[in-house]
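FAQ: What does the model actually see?

It sees only this:
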Amino acid sequence: MAQTPQIKRLRTLYAMMAGIPDFGLNMGAWRSTKIGGDGWSRSNHVTDADLLALAENQAHTCGTSACMLGWAAAYPPFKALGLKYEDTDVCFRGAREYRAGANFFGLSFNDAMDLFYPVSSSGYTQKQVAMRRIRRLLLKFGAISQDRNREIALEDGGAE
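And it is asked to produce this:
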């Protein structure tokens, strides 16, 4: 049975990503910390409070980052709905990782993979890629028009 896409949640995720500094988004790990040089370490030591402090103080330079789903699991209204970061995974109602994201946002597993799975950024920042992916789903579900998608992409400095 198909799930109903949670458009409001996707829009909220988009607004969250818009407020995250570029260096705070690392699509390669749920949550991570910089370990020197260009190395990143997946970490269960990065707390919700660490991420929220980074979002508030964008000059924060400790190297803390997270992927979209890792950020979503730190957002208090999403946490109140059951999305959480536990051990080293994002969880929602017994589902873990990408399946948790699919269930929380009302997506097919394939749409969740398209949204959250790390891939090459093709010359764009990971933040621009993340925001483009959310817009693509909003467009697919009829929540924005193609014209509005183009307009937002120009405002955000990202690709369609």
